[in-house]
Structures are given as C-alpha cells and as structure tokens.
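Posted in: Protein Modeling Q&A

I'm a second-year student putting together a small comparison for a lab meeting, and my supervisor asked me to include a predicted structure for Glutaredoxin-like protein. I've never done this before, so apologies if this is the wrong subforum. The sequence is pasted below exactly as I got it from our records. If anyone can share the structure token output, I'd also love a short note on what stands out.
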Amino acid sequence: MLWFQGNSVQLARSAFGLFLRNCSASKTTLPVLTLFTKDPCPLCDEAKEVLKPYKNRFILQEVNITLPENSVWYERYKFDIPVFHLNGQFLMMHRVNTSKLEKQLLKLEQQSTRG
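Accepted answer (user: helix_wrangler)
Welcome! Here is the predicted structure, written out as tokens:
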C-alpha cells in the first residue's frame, strides 16, 4: 500500500531499498550473539548496557527461556542467565566478559574478510 505522493514515493522506494540491502548484508556478514534471558532479569539488562558499544558488530538475538518452546534452554540455563552464544557456540555466562567478546568478534571479522 502506497500513500505517498510525488517525490515522496521515490524517496520511500530508495530508503526501503537501502534498508533491504543493509538487512541482507547484515545477515551475511554479522555474527549472531544470542542472549538467553527471562523476564525479569536485572543481570541481563546490565549485560545489554555493557554490549551497547559493540551493537554494530553483531546481531543480538534474545531467547526467553521461560517460553514453552524454549524448555530445553530453561533446563540448561535456569540458574545461569544471562548466557551468551556467539554463532551458536557457548561464549560466556553471568556477566559480559568484554575481552572475550572482543577477541571472538575480531576472530570472526578477520575470517569474514579473508574469505
């Protein structure tokens, strides 16, 4: 549904195209940092604040372990959240270890530029 008129239509089309290109580029180049969490989780909120300076270097995916479809994760991590996986591999738990995160992100960034 288009409701723009005149030059606004062209502007909307180019902005949307840019948005789609950025999304597809992000999906192919940025690693996925999965945060296993629940609500409430003050340590998870704190961890997300610590991650803000890195937000352009990964896609943050949050998994609420209390949802029925995530019962496997609940059983595994119910006493350990926040827990982080990077590209599906365990990375850290309880608090963000920025040096460990930085090291792993650099490693993935170097791999993606090589090949």
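A couple of things worth pointing out for your meeting: The chain has one domain: 32-113. The helical segments are 7-29, 42-51, 71-77, 98-114.
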